[in-house]
Amino acid sequence: MATIKDVAEIAGVTVTTVSRVLNNRGYISDSTREKVNAAMKELNYQPNELARSLFRKKSNIIGLIVPDVAHPFFAKLTSYIEAYAYAAGYKVLLCNSYQDATKEKDYVEMLKGNQVDGIIMGSHTLETSDYLTPTLPIVAIDRDFSNNIPFITSDNYAGGLIATNLLLDKGCKKLAHISGPLELSTPANKRYEAFMNTVLERKAQYVVEQAKLDVYESYKKLARKIFHKHPDIDGVFASSDMIAAAMMQVSQELGKEVPRDIKVIGYDDVEVASLMAIPLTTIKQPIDEMAQLAIKLLLDQMEGKKVTVENVLPVKLIERKST
């Protein structure tokens, strides 16, 4: 394997000159730069990226921690983050925490140890954020760590109001809300708060169940449990499109026709929502804008700029045939 010394020897220059070419530092004539590049090509020399990052004190790598990239919301978010990061000259190191708090902490320490330039936290399993001190730029998605780490979320309360009022305005008498895990105390819990405030104000019957980020079959199992205990439910507000899809499938298995017998609204507006046999009404999160803002907030922190801690983006009702 070729070394930087081999490149210097072939190019007829010093190792320091090769290093300057690699790191684009100091004055280098065009002819010298061409000789070094030709030597690297001849030797098929691959620069040691870790050594270069230590020299520059910059890795041009961003760490991204998500619960599960297979989940449609996080798949879409990851895709946008990677695109915006790459456009800004950065690559993304992806970590799946799978809702394991120990694994999540290990990933944070690993990313810090590998000198990434910033971390985007999309995972929601931390019981404490004591070790997530902002010693490097950090941005959280849908999680307020309450220690001056900027976070990005959609207007979950407005989304909850829109969804719940839509079901009641459509004539639903008994609603089910399937929330995320409320003990995590994330901004997404405001969907639940909006639901509760609305059904209590409008004196509607309701049921609330919690669902963790899980596989589709688990959502279907939860749906069967809900319909078994409450067969008279005629409106469902699910905290994600995947949960909403499971509720629709199970309701149809039980002979309930959507939207005649039961109306369903989801949250996120991932691709599956529009591709279902009965297209799903949903609250659209601006996933593209969330990803773009996450990269911007990281870059601003890297440049020493002051950033806003709480960043709330608007949501939008996408009404389709399920309501």
UniProtKB/TrEMBL annotation:
InterPro entries: HTH_LacI (IPR000843), LacI/GalR-like_sensor (IPR046335), Lambda_DNA-bd_dom_sf (IPR010982), Peripla_BP_I (IPR028082). The keyword Phosphoprotein does not apply. One of its GO terms (molecular function) is transcription cis-regulatory region binding. Residues 2-56 form the HTH lacI-type domain. It holds the Pfam family LacI. Keywords: DNA-binding, Repressor, Transcription, Transcription regulation. PANTHER family: LACI-RELATED TRANSCRIPTIONAL REPRESSOR (PTHR30146), RIBOSE OPERON REPRESSOR (PTHR30146:SF95). This is LacI family transcriptional regulator. It comes from Clostridium folliculivorans.
